[in-house]
Design goal:
mainly alpha, 101 residues
Length: 101
C-alpha cells in the first residue's frame, strides 16, 4: 500500500469491512464497486482472513451474543449459590463443634 493513504480513512474503511458480512464484501468486489486499489486490497485481505477462520462471524452464538451472556450470568449465580451453601455448612459445623466442647 502507498504511503499517501490517510490513516484515518484507512481505519474507517477497515472498521466498515469488519462490520460488513463476507458475502456483501465479495459482492462489492465482484461488481467492481470498490475502485481504489488499497481499498480493494484491504477488502480482499479481509475476505481471505475470514475464509481462513471458517467464514463470517457467527449469527447467534458469538462471544458477545445475548445467549452467551445469559448463560454466563446463570453460571455465575449458580456458583455464588454453591459458595453460600458451603459457607453456611462450614459455619454450622464449626458452631456445632464449639457447642459440643
Amino acid at each position: 500500500m502507498s504511503d499517501d493513504i490517510d490513516p484515518q480513512e484507512q481505519a474507517k474503511f477497515l472498521a466498515l469491512l469488519r462490520r460488513s458480512e463476507t458475502d456483501a464484501i465479495v459482492q462489492k468486489l465482484d461488481d467492481n464497486t470498490i475502485i481504489r486499489d488499497w481499498k480493494r486490497q484491504l477488502a480482499e485481505n479481509e475476505v481471505e482472513r475470514r475464509k481462513g477462520r471458517g467464514g463470517s462471524q457467527p449469527k447467534g452464538g458469538g462471544a458477545h451474543s445475548p445467549q452467551t451472556h445469559a448463560a454466563a450470568q446463570l453460571k455465575g449465580w449458580i456458583i455464588t449459590g454453591v459458595l453460600i451453601v458451603c459457607a453456611v455448612l462450614i459455619a454450622y459445623v464449626y458452631i456445632a463443634d464449639q457447642m459440643s466442647n
